Structure prediction request, 240 residues.
Amino acid sequence: MRQEAVLQSPDQVASSARIHEEKRMYFWCKRCMDIVLSLLFLIITLPLFLLIALLIKVDSPGPVIFRQTRIGKDGKPFTFVKFRSMRQDANPQVHQEHLRRVIRGADTSGNPGGEDSGDGGERAGKLSNDARVTRVGRIIRKTTLDELPQLLNVLKGEMSLVGPRPPLPYEMEMYEDWHIRRLKVLPGMASLWVVRGRADIPFDDQARMDIEYIENQSLWLDTKILLQTPWAVVSGGGAG
Prediction:
């Protein structure tokens, strides 16, 4: 049977072009906002950076900055940075097994986290009372100060201030097909589920919120999430 091409009307073509242009302008403005705000935050928090680096160095042996491979937009890997909050000899398999339980539902709530990920308490993938975490590490995790170096990832264009949190390679291997939709945009330092409950939200619900964010992206939504993030951190909801 012959298939006939479906032609768009002039109005449909114009509407499609307008939507494409609006998205292009949004991503351009979002990138400008990322650069300006990241530079501003880095300048303002420079004394805090130096203090945290000193405390980490005094508290335990090892590097100040923890580097790790994460998965970014469209599945592209990049080097993710944060302040080290664990002992240098910490066994990553402890977190890997816990994360497997979280994603597969044995742990009824949680999201990818830990220094092996870095997003919350046990429910978020960080193990409660984890012996691998240093004294300074517990403080900077609780206050989310360990995430500050990710401003450098934002400046490099590997992350955005707002977007889904970047998964670990072995975490992505555990994803169901629909979870992969989280990788359609640049990962972010702050996300929709962070301001709605952080680690108190089950993994699948966090994935759905990430997809909700992707489908409704706007400068207003980004600004709203950024403004709500400090309160989410101070209130400590779901933090570990």
The longest strand covers residues 65-71.
